[in-house]
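Table 4 source record.
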Amino acid sequence: MIVVNKKLLEKLKRKNKGNAFLIVAIDNLIGDLENNNLNNQTELLKIRPDADCVHEDGFYFFDIHIHRSLILVEFDESGEITIVWCGSHDEYETTFKNNKNTIRKWLKEREWI
């Protein structure tokens, strides 16, 4: 699968270059997404049990060490996965307030849905 907008994860790695656990977790996430041909949510959950579906259009949060990453997973022929947002868990709570309605509003304001 093709991972689009990996630069967000790379930026997170640069900001936390001393955090070896986070860097490994990001590399593992990218590897899991790139090296598997995912066709549905069941297949995704087999390789990434930390995937948390937050919108029926295929948006998932993943736990990566102590950080969260919002990723759009499109299960279609294009095989494209887009990184939408990533940040620390505190940034996640500030931005999304642990609330699916807030997540939906955030996605809508940015024309993801």
